[in-house]
Amino acid sequence: MQIVYSRVSTAAQSLLRQRHILTEAGLLVRTEGVAEGFRPADGVLLFEDPATTSKIPALDPPTFGKIAAKAHPGDTLTVSELFRLCRDLLDIHAIRTWRQARGLVLRVLSGPLSNFHDLAANDATTAMIINVITAVGQFQRDIQNELTIEGIAAGEAEGRYRGRPPALTGERVEQVRSGYLDQGASVAALARAHGVSRAAIRTALSGLLPDQGTPAPRSS
């Protein structure tokens, strides 16, 4: 049996690219009149983890419990790209051990490891190549993160990246404070009236709210 796993990190991301890769491999089939436009091919079990952060260890997403319950020795677990499944050496070793214990074949459809028939194979050559490629990928991500942090620090030193400006300033802040103190308006009502978030209203009411040791609003 073929088992397919897809994952995105945030709700803003889409599974579409992964679905296209899986369709090209014959694991998904395009459908007409269906919102997603894809369905598993015959003999394929599809598992998807939408909006599951990559900071969660590879074996911890809820879907893995479902995969474990359905998988049998000799089945193949396929992902479109390795980083959909794991992010670092620790994760890939955990995944390989997990697959080996269950007798599963592990395949990746794109990227430098796509030529391997089984990434969970226990031979020394497979283990060495996976270690090298995964370590290089982790190194590249670490370098990119360092450059991003350095860029932000440099921007702050030059006066950039001072944070998001407040949603309410000047006269509008005074209107909010007057509405709260003099008219007894709630935070929610003020947020609706000014078209901003409740957090922006609380910022404008700094020092006035009850949990900040504020005076209660006066009755009109």
Description of the structure:
It is elongated and about 75 Å long. The chain has 220 residues and is an alpha/beta fold. It has seven helices and six strands.
Relevant terms:
220 residues; alpha/beta; four-stranded parallel sheet; two-stranded antiparallel sheet; 7 helices; 6 strands; 43% helix
Summary?
By secondary structure, this protein is of the alpha/beta class. The chain has helices spanning about 15-25, 60-70, 90-100, 125-155, 170-185, 185-195, 200-205; strands at about 1-5, 30, 40, 45-50, 75-80, 105-110.
* 3D shape: elongated
- Residue-averaged pLDDT, rounded? 79
Count of helix runs: 7
Number of strands: 6
**How much beta, percentage-wise?**
5-15%
Give the uncertain stretches in residue-range form: none
SSE diagram, text form:
Blueprint: E1 2-7, H1 16-24, E2 28-30, E3 38-40, E4 44-49, H2 62-70, E5 76-79, H3 89-102, E6 105-108, H4 124-157, H5 170-183, H6 187-194, H7 198-204
Parallel strand pairs: 1-4, 1-5, 5-6
Antiparallel strand pairs: 2-3
Helix pairs in contact: 6-7
